[in-house]
Write a structure and sequence with these properties.
6-stranded mixed beta sheet, alpha+beta, 6 strands, 5 helices, 35% strand, DNA-binding
DNA sequence: GCCAACGTTGGC
DNA sequence: GCCAACGTTGGC
């Protein structure tokens, strides 16, 4: 199983929207590198949700419930999305400042390439952020 | 509001 | 195929 991180502007679609919807198709990705990651996702993979903008925090975890398929919000037919379902929020959101300050996390794609909206997360990074986020044990797929 | 980083577009 | 110009993202 792989781990990922997706970004969203909370003004556009926030974690609370996701909790309300319970499940959503993660549309709107319009970047080739991000699309590669979407295509690599498998059902059961766990994904951090990060709020960009004012929040700048990892706020929750979703799981992939449907592999990549056509993005209904795209007219050109070239972009894809996966379906995700809410798993848990982080009791204590992990801020970008914390991530940058943590030597184990400072190498994250989130820090190195802040513009990539869908990105891989290493197992070490995953467990560290779960811990910082106040999860006693990381969720199972 | 500014600007750095990055991606895309289009002329050559 | 290169690269300048432009647009967008997102942190500060």
């Amino acid at each position: 199983m792989n781990h990922w991180l997706v970004k969203s502007e909370p003004e556009t679609y926030s974690w609370s929207d996701l909790v309300r919807d319970k499940r959503t198709d993660w549309t709107g990705v319009r970047n080739y590198a991000a699309r590669l990651h979407l295509r690599a996702m498998q059902v059961g993979d766990l994904v951090f949700v990060y709020h960009s903008g004012d929040d700048k925090s990892v706020v929750g975890i979703v799981k992939v419930v449907n592999e990549a398929h056509a993005d209904s919000t795209d007219d050109t037919g070239q972009w894809e999305c996966v379906d995700v379902a809410a798993v848990t929020d982080l009791p204590k959101p992990v801020t970008l400042a914390e991530i940058k300050a943590n030597p184990k996390l400072a190498g994250m794609v989130l820090v190195r390439n802040s513009r990539l909206s869908v990105q891989p997360v290493s197992p070490t990074e995953w467990s560290m952020i779960c811990k910082l986020g106040g999860l006693a044990k990381p969720p199972q797929a």
